Structure formats: structure tokens, C-alpha cells
Amino acid sequence: MLLRKLLYILCLAFLLFNRVKCYYFNIVNESILKRVEETTCFRQHYVSFKNQLLKVCLYYKSTEYPKYTFNIYIYKVNEEDKWEKKNELIIGNTNRNIRYFYTFSTEDKIIVVFCYNMNLYRTPCKCFYSTSYDGITFETKRTALNYIVFNYLSVTDYYSKHYDLFGENFLLMCGINHQIIHDNSKNLIVCFGSNNDGKSWDYKFNFRYLKANINISYFMLKLIISGNEIGFKYVTSEAPFSATYIKCKYKSMHDFYCDDVDLKIGDKIIRDIVKVGGYYLTSQSDTNLSTCQLYYVYNSVVLAPANGKSEGYKCHKDNFFPLENSRLIYSFENENLSYSYVFRYTGSVKHCTLLYFKKDDLNPGFIRGSDNVYSCTIKYDELIVEGDDRYFVLSVLNEVKTDLKKCFHFSYDNLLYPVNIIHKIDTVTEYENYKLYIFHIKKDIENFFYEDKTLHCDLGDNFTMKLDLNYKNSFVIDNTSPILPTELKLHNNNIIYYKIPNLRSKNQFLSNISFPPQTKYIKKSDIMYIFKMPPYIKDKIESSLYFINKSNKVEKKPIIFNKGGAIPNLIGVDFSNLDNSCSYGFASNRCEYIRIEGNKINVDVSAHTDSDVMLGMICPVDSNNQNICFNDVYDNDKKVFIRDYFEDNEGLLTILPKTYIHIPGSSITYEESNLIIGREFLEKLYKNRSNYKNSLVCKCYMNKVHYEVTFNLSQNF
Description:
Elements lengths: L1 H11 L6 E3 L4 E11 L6 E7 L2 E11 L5 E10 L5 E6 L8 E9 L4 E8 L8 E7 L6 E5 L14 E4 L1 E3 L2 E9 L10 E8 L8 E7 L8 E9 L2 E8 L7 E9 L2 E6 L8 E8 L2 E7 L7 E6 L2 E3 L12 E7 L4 E7 L4 E9 L5 E3 L12 E2 L5 E6 L4 E3 L2 E9 L11 E2 L8 E2 L3 E7 L3 E9 L10 E8 L2 E7 L6 E3 L9 E3 L4 E5 L9 H4 L7 E4 L4 E5 L3 E2 L3 E8 L5 E8 L2 E2 L4 E5 L19 E4 L2 E5 L8 E8 L11 E4 L2 E4 H4 L7 E9 L8 E8 L1 H9 L7 E8 L2 E8 L5
Parallel strand pairs: 7-11, 15-19, 27-31, 29-37, 38-40, 39-45, 47-50, 49-56
Antiparallel strand pairs: 1-2, 2-26, 3-4, 4-5, 5-6, 7-8, 8-9, 9-10, 12-13, 13-14, 14-15, 16-17, 17-18, 18-19, 20-21, 21-22, 22-23, 24-25, 25-26, 28-29, 30-31, 31-35, 32-33, 34-35, 36-37, 40-42, 41-42, 41-53, 43-46, 44-45, 48-49, 50-54, 51-52, 53-54, 55-56
């Protein structure tokens, strides 16, 4: 504890500088613009859209009681750097109350949702959504929202980007669950999701919070989406001035579980929260709502930049609005004026800092266990998101003492050959004697997170890093769930947690079930399986599965696998169907690319540099002879890590974890190996063929024969 206090003091010692560096942080706050707001808004949202800064403004004016005037104005910054009104969503204003309004943005459009209330303390009677593709011209249409589910006093306005869930983009409208006082579900928050940009809100998401208290009231609920993290800010009747933040994790179906994140500093009150660069940025003040101070928070370490204070003596209505290119807007009102600050942040959190001192608290992030091993645990949902990359940072005094390429190998069991899920490690020198190791993970890997799992990295001298894969990005249905929909429909890439209800059927179970072709799975035990639907389902399949209800009784339910998805650009060898060598996955016309001569198989990879290509190999599982592909390949009959073999230091190859694959009617267990070759890699290869290897060799063991499979990448296309 003493050292943690010293670290805290050390970090705060940098208050005199805009550039903030310490054991956990490397931050630069670049002030871009300070603006005294000349436009008057009751509430406003700032949005960065197609290289323009917009303000969505809820205009409110009280004329004579009880008459009010409402509208929603769209402002854009003009060439003179002033707000210019470009549109009003309600022609001629309205006297109807507008309490609820929300702004959402996607890559190609802005959506503003607003609702009319008969009075401010009743649920809305009409809702609309306005869509714009240029940020200026809007088209407004009716939509329907089920506000009856919400405690309407908890609902407040907010701006949000879409939430990427199950590979699908949702707009989320959220509120405190009005029914929480009538059941024991602990579902504190309910969100309605729209996957058609506000036209309809057909999806209901439940957020369970075990500390939910039916004896207190919850207000001002705000949705916060940051990369892979979804959370909520709210205040309660017990602490009406200070916000609480909870972070939520996907469980199954449309259900999430939420836990507290402690961001409060001393006796201050939290005003607003945003997550950037892996750390939380909070606005906090004392209880009399005086000057707001910005704080960066990661674990128990806090930084307060010197230029992070609001002007004036009071601070009201302060909010963060993330923009593009690592920019933020922080807006607030003091006793006289409204302000907005635009600033850019660079740098990121250092998740673990290793000094190789075997003393408690001398290696920030590392905790000594009962075995005297010091471990630093990183949760996957805390990773920094940058496009299709997720990354985390290790800071080391001098340099690390082990080979980091041997770290973070992923395997669901001892039969499946482990795969390194780190596709790139960047190294940066800091301060002269510190090195930053930046570990990158491709988003594609998330499709293989079927369950929570912890990966390890040995750093030497009894120090280790742990990566907790606590994140899933696929819809999950559990046949032991107490609540199931009456009609069960599954789609491509969905996951089924399946417990066999009868032990006597465990040996025949796999050969009797009817799943779409190319369904992957892992076996947890003799009675527990996890199935992953393929990326493409050609035809609709009607089947049935057993489910175990609340009373622990077994019932058979019909289930539908809907057709749809995308056919991957996949070529490979399927040893479960070797007699038909032209067939693999969803393609059956590959004869001209595959040649079999005894135990030698050659595959010519028909690839173009305008798209990625996936290689695959389906082999029988043998406990004594593991199949080698694609984490390692063969070079003159010697196993070599594929990134070393191809000199892939840029992370242009993505090695996917091995899983079992369901072969209907077969008593043999098969596994599938896959490799994604990025188009950038293909471009590099074809432009410099003489400098790079243009084939790779894998091995598959079947019927007591080692088959050698060569994938040739040297064709002229």
C-alpha cells in the first residue's frame, strides 16, 4: 500500500506538465480549441461526422406559463469557426414537451431519435427518428418505443455510437427496468436495440446487476460504449450528486452481467465518464458543484493534468463527447457561460510494468501469488480497440528476459495443437532504459471465444502475464437457461451451450444431432458441449434439441437454423471426405487446384490481392500424432513458427484457433485448422516473389499415414 501511495504521488508530481508519463500512463493532452458557446441549448450532443463537427441542440424556451417552445436544431461549424444553424427537425417549433432525445452515429449516417410527452412526468406518446447522410438534410419518420418497460424518471438523453454485438450493429435505447421491484431477476437495466437504424426496436437486452436495490431510486441513466466495453453511468437517491459506473459483460441470449468500477477519488463526486486509450477519463468536483477537474484513472492509479480544470467557480451540465482521431469534446456551464473544449489525447495505458524487482508493489500491475509467482492479469474487454486491432502494453525496465513469441498460446484441450493468437508485437523505447512491448490481436480471433479462458506468458524470474479472455462476440443460447423464448431461431455464427440430459446417450449424441454443415464445437466433458454455427448456412434447417427447464425437467423443443451469412473465400483439404478432393467447406469445384499423389497433396491457392483468402485443413484427431498446421509449418521437415517462416513481422497472417468440426454420421473425431492470409501479405508476396517463400507445408495423420500437404502461393493471377 505504501508503494501504491508513492506511485500516486509520483504521478501527481507531473501536474505541472501537459505531457504525463508514469508507470501506468503515457498521455499527451493537446488543447485544440476552446469555445464560448454562443448558441443556447437546453441539452446538446456533439458529433464528428464525415470530417465535420456538428451539434445536435435541444432548444427549449418558456414563453408564458404553461406554454413552452421546443425544437431540435442542427448546427455546423462554418469557415469563421462559429456555429451555423443548418436545419431544424421540427418545422415551426412545437408546444409539445420533448424530454427524450438521443443522437446516434454510424459510418454513413446520423440518427436523431426524439419523443413527445403530454407532460414531463409521463411516458412519451409519439416518437420519431430523423436520418441524415450528409449531416445537414434530415428525413423524419415515426418509430415506436416501448417506454412502459422503463422507469421514466431514470431516462435521460445521450449520444452514442452503434454497439457491435454478435457481428451486428445495434442502436441502444436504455432505461432502468420498471419491473425490478416485482421480481428477483436483478435486471436493473433494459435496452431496446434497433438493427435498422431506428426504424424499429425489436430486440430487448437485459443487464443484471446483483447489487441492485429495490429500496432506492435510480436516475439519469447514460449508456457508455467504449471499444469492446459496454457500461452505464447513473445516480441514485442515496447519492444524487455523484455518478456510479458499472461495466457489463455478455452472458447468453440477450443477457449481460454488470459489476462496479470504482472511479471515485476521495470525497469528490463523479460528474461524467468516458474511456479512451485503455483508461477512464472522469470529471469530478466537490459536493458544492464547484470547479470540475479531469482525472485519468486506471486501477488504483490516478492522474490529474494541470490543464484539466474548468473555468469559473461553478460547474454544471458537464459531458464528454468522443470524436474521431483520438479527439474529445468536454462541455460544461459555469455561473455565467457555456464552454466547450476540443482536445486530443495520445498515448495509452501501460497494463503491466515490470522492473524485475522481487518485492511486493515494485512492479506495477503485478501481484504475488501463494506460489511466489508475480502475475499481471489483463482482461480482454479492457484492451484498447483500434480498427480491427485490439492491443495491450507491457513496459519493461531494460528488456524482457524471455521469447515473447512463445506467449499466449490458445487451445481448448490437450488434443488440439495450441495457436499463438498474438499477430504482432511492436517494440518502442521509452526514457532510454524502458521498452514498451505492444501486443496486437486481430478482431477475427473473437469468433473463437466460445467460453472464458486464461492464457499465459512467462516473462522469466517468476514473473508472468495473464490474458483473461472474458469476452464473447457471438449470440449464445444455453439449453439450461431458466428462461427461453417460445420460438428458437438460430443464425450463422451463433453459439449453443449444450448439456446432454441423458448420460446413456453420450456416445451416440454427436452422430444423431442435425446441425448445419461446417458446425464447429468443443467438448467440455462427457455431457457438456459448445457448438458454433458456421459463417454460412445454405438452407433452412428444422430440428429439435433437449432443454432443461427451471424444475430440472427435460423437454424437447423445436429449433430452426435460418439460412444466411457469407461464404468465406476458403480453400483446403478435407480428410473426412478425401474421396471427393474437390470439396471443402462450401465449395465443391476446386478440382483444378488440388492434386493427390500417394501421401503428397498439393493445393494451388487461387487468390487475388483485392481480398483475403482462408486456408483450411480438416484432419482426424489422434492423441499420439498431432496434426501440424497452421501455427507451425514445415521447413525441410523441421517445424517452424509460421510468422518466422514467412518473416511476417507486420501481423499480416491471422492464425485461427483449432476446434473440432461436426461431421454428421461419423464416429471419428475431426479437427479444423484455418489461416487467414491478408491481402496486404499477398500484395507483398507477389511484388517481391524472389525475396519471400511462396509455399507452406502442413502434415495430417490419418489411417497410420502422415500426409504432407503443400499450399502453393506462387500462381500467376
